[in-house]
Amino acid sequence: MILHDVNITGDCLQPINSTCLKIYSSMAAYVSLYVFAAAVVIFTVCGNLLVIISVYHFKQLHTPTNILIISLAISDCLVGLFVMPVHSMILIESCSLFGSTFCSLYNMINFQLTFVSVYNISFIAVDRYFALSNPFLYSKKVSLLLAFIITTHVWIVSLFYNCALLYFNGNFRNKCADKCVPSVDEVWSTIDLVVVFILPCATIIVLYLKVFFIARRHAVLIRAAFKDRKHLDVQNNGGSMRLERKAAKVIGILVSVFLICLIPYYICMLLFDVLAQSYDRVVNTMLTLFFLNSTMNPIIYALFYPWFQKSMKLILTLRICRTDSSLINVLSNDS
C-alpha cells in the first residue's frame, strides 16, 4: 500500500530542523523510544514468522486459504524488517539520516510490501465469502495451485504498479536529501486512492458483511433443526451459538482493525491543504498506526484460530524438530 507524504508540487519539503537535533526531556526518554520501537518490530517479525513456519511446516495446513495467509504474513514480516525500523528512526530523529538513493529504495520496498498486504487481506475476504456461499463449488474449483497463482500475481502487479507510480512522478531522481518524501501529483494521488484504498476497502466491507449474514443464517437454520427434534441436544445447540458469536467477533475485529489503521491516513492525505504546517507530524502519526496493521494481522488472522495456538506451542517447544512432526494433527474440531 502506498504510504507517503503527498508532495503535489514535486519540490523538496523543508526539513524540520536543519541542525538535525531534536530535544527530549532526558536521554532516558530518547532511549525508551528506540526500545519501544524495537519491541514493536520484534513482535511484528516474530508473530508473522510463527504464522509462516506453521503453515509451511504442517502439511495439514496446506490449504488455499492458508496460502493467502502465508503471503500476508510474509509481506507483514518484511514490513517489520525493512519498513518499521526506518520509519521509527524518521519519527525519533528530527531529519532523515539517509541519502536520496536509500530513500528511493525504502519507498519502493514500503509501497510494494504494504500494497501486497492490503490485497492479500482483500483476497482472503473473497476466499472466505466464496467458501461459505458456495462450499461445493469452492472445493472443486479452488486449489493450492490457484491460490499460489493469485498470490504471485498480487506481488507482480504490485511491483509494476509501484514502479510506475514512482517513475512517472520522478521519485527515482529524488532531490530531497533531508527527508524520505516521495512526490505524487494530483492524477496519481487520485489513482492511488482508488486502487489502494477505495477498491480493497469496499471489497472487504461488502464481502465480510455478506459472510456475517450468511453465518448468522446458517446458525439460525441449525437452531431451528434442533428445535424440531424430539430430544433437544443442548450441547450442540450451545455449540452453534458459540460458532455464531465467534464468526461475528472475528469478522468484526478483521474489518474494524483494518479500517482503523487505513482510514486516518487517507483522511490526512485528503486534508493536505487544511493541515498545512502540521501535515508532516500528523501524517507520520497516522503512518505509525498504518504500520501497526502489520503487527495486528498475525493476531487477527491466526491467533484466534485453534490450529495456530497448537502449532505455536509445537514450534516454541521445538517439537517440530522431531521426525514426521509435519504430520502432527494441529486441527481441532472447531477450527
TrEMBL record:
Show where the G-protein coupled receptors family 1 profile domain sits.
Answer: 47-301
**Topology relative to the membrane:** Multi-pass membrane protein
Keyword presence, Transmembrane helix:
yes
- Localization in the cell: Cell membrane
Q: Single GO molecular-function term?
A: trace-amine receptor activity
- List membrane-spanning regions: 31-55, 67-91, 111-130, 142-167, 187-209, 250-267, 287-308
Q: Name one Pfam family in it.
A: 7tm_1
List UniProt keywords, sorted A-Z: Cell membrane, G-protein coupled receptor, Membrane, Receptor, Transducer, Transmembrane, Transmembrane helix
- Primary localisation category: membrane
Record's GO cellular component, any one? plasma membrane
Is rRNA processing among the key words of this record?
A: no
By sequence similarity, the record places it as follows: Belongs to the G-protein coupled receptor 1 family.
**Annotated protein name in UniProt:** Trace amine-associated receptor 13c-like
Q: Which organism is it from?
A: Clupea harengus (Atlantic herring)
